[in-house]
Amino acid sequence: MPAFQLFDEPLPSQPPFDISVAAGAVVSFDGRVRDQNENRSVSKLAYSAYPALALSEGNRIVAEAIARFALTAAACCHRLGELALGDVAVRVWAVAAHREEAFAGCRYIIDEVKTRVPIWKKETYLDGQSEWVMCSHGPEGQPASRSDARTSAAE
Q1: What range does the domain containing 104 cover?
Q2: CATH number for 35
Q3: According to the 3-state scheme, what is the secondary structure of the chain?
Q4: Looking at residues 69-76, what average pLDDT do you find?
């Protein structure tokens, strides 16, 4: 099963792999649709993607994390389509012998997915307006560089 997957329906709650008895740490992350972004009230989100490239780059990111952080397993899945407040938009699992590696691997995956995978987010606001937004932020909450126009995951 691929380590990175796209879904048009709610994301699976369990990782797509068995967890080894050698695993001392399993870290997961859920990126959920929240009701506020940059002082605006959000009513819903919609995600779209370039699937072939998103799957390729997402699998590359998970493989990098496994190698870089000595993970025994990892996976990430992302929703596409319209999502309501509270829905899980992205889910990451990272498994390692120790918690430090599992936390670092999980963070690496979500941070890289948000900046490298061609998934775009459109926010709709309570006032009826909507716009495509960049959902990756740099240091101290400042918007990340727009040199990479791709955006991803809920924050």
Answers
A1: 4-11+23-141
A2: 3.90.1170.40
A3: CCCEEEECCCCCCCCCCCCCCCCCEEEEEEEECCCEECCEEEEEEEEEECHHHHHHHHHHHHHHHHHHHCCCEEEEEEECEEEECCCEEEEEEEEECCHHHHHHHHHHHHHHHHHHCCEEEEEEECCCCEEEECCCECHHHCECCCCCCCECCCC
A4: 97
Paired residues of 4 in beta bridges? 76
Is 74 domain-assigned?
Answer: yes
Amino acid present at 13: S
- Count of the separate structural domains present in the chain: 1
Residue 152 lies in a domain: no
Q: Which tens digit of pLDDT belongs to each residue from 96-149? A: 999 999 999 999 999 999 999 999 999 999 999 999 986 554 444 444 433 333
| Residue 153 forms part of a structural domain | no
pLDDT band at 2 (very low <50, low <70, confident <90, very high): confident
